[in-house]
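Quality-control log, excerpt.
Job 1 of 2 completed; input and output follow.
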Amino acid sequence: MRQMQDTAPLLWPFMKMHGLGNDFVVVDTRARALDLSPDLVRALADRHRGVGFDQLAVVASGDDLTITFYNADGSMSAACGNATRCIAAREMTMTGAHELRVNVTGRGQLEAVMRPDGVTAVNMGHPVLDWQNIPLAQDVDILHLPIDGDPVATGMGNPHCTFFVDDVAAVDLATRGAAVEHHPLFPERTNVQFAQVTAPDHIRMRVWERGTGVTLASGSSSCAVAVAAHRRGLTGHKVTIELDGGTLEVDWRDNGVWMAGPTAHVFDGTLTQSFLDSL
């Protein structure tokens, strides 16, 4: 009898994760390499014809865990706090470790810990508070940008523009976020937050992420808002950030801005070779 040839298609594994509804596709290239292009990133981000995500995270090997991030439009992102927490939580659960060093492309080495209550916290590093490295197009007062609404600029590896408002529910987030993302003062575009301080330790926030749009949560944005609020004298160093998708704890300490909150590993899946060949 003639032996049947193996015609099984190649499968490319990925993980779907989220932190407060801020969702990610995670590709672990330690197991198998995957050549990424902007077209592939955009195809994966399509929630109707691909998988769908706010950010794509690519995990690679190195002296420590190394992660590179991409936005839904195919552009690179220097930091993604919620995805970093999700990936770190999975890694620590698999290895039994309670601490982990993570190299984030564009941000450097970050520290993650698994707290006794099971919540994963990540030190997102020190905020960037000089205009050249945020970066801005010119030397201005970053606590009072010359933009309508008197926002604050903060760098957390990626640029952030924070507006303090009386009622975040009344903000047309899609319209204002898209306009500010492309403001000429931000040569690399910017993430945009609208924040309502409701107590010295509590902020209600909504976010527009550059290269993606409206998201239910953002870790780096939450850190930027906490820093901006404290620098404006509106809050202490430690605050609870209430986002559309849930709450995060942010604590600006001497060694960096710590961010903690829930994580979820939703499912594992595979990309088919036919999907990759169709691009």
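Job 2 of 2 completed; input and output follow.
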Amino acid sequence: MNREQVETNLPILPPPKEKVTFFQWLKDNLFSSWYNTLFTIALSILLFSIIKGTLTWIFIDADWSIVTSNFKILMSGQYPAVQLWRVWLCIVLLASLLGFSSGIWNGTITHLSIFLGSLLFISGILPFVSLETRIWTFIGLAILIVGHFIGKKIPIKKTILIGWFLLFPIAIFFINGFGVLPKVGTNLWGGFLLTILLATVAIVCSFPIGVLLALGRRSKLPTIKYFCIFYIEFIRGIPLITILFVSSIMLPLFLGQGVELNNILRAMIGLTLFNAAYLAENVRGGLQAIPRGQYEASHALGLSSPLMTCFIILPQALRSVIPAMVGQFIAIFKDTTLVTIIGIIDILGMAKNVAQNPQFLGQQMEVFLFVAVVFFLFCYALSYTSRRIEKSLGVGER
């Protein structure tokens, strides 16, 4: 093979891309023609007027006294002020776990710890919060930072994993008391504290139920298969508000006499059952996306069906449906506001009650904007975490 033949067999590389300056990009994309220029100018004027009016209202015209005066009620409802240390203790425990985890594993968990640390810092410097709140926020922030550096030096992975598994039951124990601590009834739970509890219970409890329903729908046993199909299709065909009404009014009738469930527990059951049906369909979509060769390879290795499902099939299925599952988690987090219709006062219900106070008439926009910002921050945190996990796992890449 001579030199000319060798040169003809070499791959043809694309020419290097020229660096585009900022002004060149503006010219190519926004001012490429006379009508594009007019549209850009008109849209810029419209956006400027909207942004200017919004910022002027937020920082000059708006009266935020409705939020500053009722900040505690919006966040924790009627939870006794002398017992709020229990809620703060749970937040500090969460901050410590995030701090240690960010030092051990880095990556996505570090971004979550930065998010929580920013919230704690902002809460601590607000001028209208109490001294106790300011002390607890800076304690949580300090533990978060110290835990990050300790996690880098000391190998405590197993302890931190156990802490994450125990975080939710420990938090429920401290918030309720269960007779060991002074009991705080669920009728005093409210505000954003109740929203977080409802969403967390619905997500944590519905996930294993949804996975079992998805596996049961693909079962070869007719009884299990058709029961799962009926449950999923029946629940998905009913609005969530109907599920909440049924769980609030009709659920005690099925439990019989002597068994009493408070309204919040009934709402948690309704949200869990509703969310499980949608998660089941998300997981089933992931199971159907697994190539047949994965099943054949697992059987060739001598794995039983339970082992194949737990260690080969299910991890791949869950990995492929992370966006859909997180989207459902965000949806159920926002749908918790529907509990106001059955008499449970979450942060939105508390905002409605505060706005009806004659002292704050005409300030509805301020309090509802505050609620919207709170929901946006936490929903965006979930969405951002999902994207980071997808990127780290290579979802959608080959």
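Post-run check on job 2. The two ends are 36 Å apart (CA to CA).
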